[in-house]
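Q: For a teaching handout, I want to show students what a protein-ligand complex looks like in token form. Below are the inputs, and the small molecule is NAP. Please produce the holo structure.
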Amino acid sequence: MTAETQLIVTGAQGRIGRLLRKLWADRPPSGLSPLWLTRKEWDIGQGPPPEVPSGGVLLDLAGVTSGDFERNPFLASKVADFSQQLGCKLIYVSSAAVYPGGAMDMDEDRALAPVSAYGRSKVAAEVTVRAVASNPTILRLGNVAGADALLAGNRPGLMVTLDQTTLGNRGPVRSYIGPHVLAEVLSVICSKAIEAKGIGHTLNVAQPHPVAMADLLDAAGYDWSFRDPHDGVIDKVALSLDRLQELTPVPAATASSLVADLCQLGCWP
Ligand SMILES: NC(=O)c1ccc[n+]([C@@H]2O[C@H](COP(=O)([O-])OP(=O)(O)OC[C@H]3O[C@@H](n4cnc5c(N)ncnc54)[C@H](OP(=O)(O)O)[C@@H]3O)[C@@H](O)[C@H]2O)c1
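A: Here is the structure, written as tokens, with NAP included.
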């Protein structure tokens, strides 16, 4: 590995892409040189990919997170094609939404059973990626504090309504990761992707210790109340993080540590 190894990042204008561009500006992943691809450089599926040198790693952050989810497998297939043409190691960013949720921790070998249209589109994208790319790694990312619907879409002074669950009075529970921790973990994953040992075929990504949404809202100083009970609420999605912890140590999350991590960012880039 040399300092010249390229790290192509697609979806570079999205929330996570902008975060990485800011936090990796001074300290890019060890041994890698990021090449940021936004829709301006490549409108995936509309035109040919840009001409870039072969080899390296491709971190695929491009996707549809609201609206026409059905485009996700198509976009993923185009990026996987590109990685094949270049002989890149592909890392596709999927989601914890591929899991059904429940009392047990979701480990990477569990049968997938998404409950949302978004989750189903990410499962289809994973299948496509595996069919097209040789030896890709799929990351199943938990909720990103500040890039999620809960903290990103609200602010102090607004009344947030929270789903009721059967778990108690703290609302749904999810595996979260703070923005700085995410940037660091993705940095390590990308660097290790080209080491001989590699990073495996599937990896859950979040901080250990799932967090209740009411605790997160309290830590952020947001007013909240429960909305009327309704069907389809997933009480808990906790990711098993043993595989990630073998790769790199990740600190356990608390509601206050996640909010502190987000506050350290100032506003989202
Ligand atoms: N944020 C989270 O909490 C979270 C959690 C789990 C998994 N993920 C996954 O992580 C990835 C990145 O998430 P994010 O929050 O950064 O999503 P995002 O803000 O929606 O960004 C997705 C990016 O994909 C780009 N894109 C979509 N279609 C494209 C096309 N045809 N050509 C070129 N670019 C295209 C978008 O470009 P434009 O900006 O030009 O539209 C956007 O910049 C997604 O795959 C998401 O499913 C996110």
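A: Two things your students might notice: Helices lie at 15-23, 71-86, 117-132, 149-152, 179-192, 213-220, 242-247, 255-264. The chain has a mean pLDDT of 95.
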